[in-house]
Amino acid sequence: MQRNKVRRRQHFERARRYRMRNNEPNTWVLTDVALIIRGATLVPDEVTELLQIEPTAVRQPGPDPLGYVPDTAGQWRLQSDDLSTKTLSCQLDAIMSSIEPRLSTLQELVARGADACIRITGYAGNDSQIVLTAAEMERIARLGIPLSLSPSLSER
């Protein structure tokens, strides 16, 4: 775990120095894109069967036995692989390419009462911005589910 923190800090510092040298805007770093489907009675195995996609994480509905997560909703998550998809555009493309062919099934889940969103997380510094192209925004809009931006403002 400590090794990952060091690698992330080094990556952030290299990106910051590169942007300063090239007068580029300060953007979010170490981004991550996920499709999250939640519901009070959501059974993750049923979502997997309907979408025919293996999730990267699931949570069964009900209270967390250890008490760490106060949310009792079931959750199904498809998260980008940060080892093979380094940039935000690649991460978003990986998630969208997986879910776009199954759009009608996703919309059916939402019609049944599930909540779904595309969530983008990352580290954001002072005056940083997230850059999404018009084509990327159009792809997200076609899904008919919200886009959630979740910046981490903590010190790195």
Short account of what is shown:
With 156 residues, the chain is an alpha+beta fold. The chain is built from 5 helices and 5 strands.
Give the helix level as a range of percent. 25-40%
Going across the biggest sheet, name each strand in turn.
2-3-1-4-5
The multimeric state of the shown protein is single chain
> What is the first-to-last residue Cα distance?
15 Å
Largest sheet: 5 strands, mixed
State the helix count: 5
What is the molecular shape?
globular
Structural summary, described in words:
With 156 residues, the chain is of the alpha+beta class. Helix content is 38%, strand content 22%. The chain has five helices and five strands, in the order αβαββααβαβ. It has a five-stranded mixed beta sheet. The protein starts with a helix and ends with a strand.
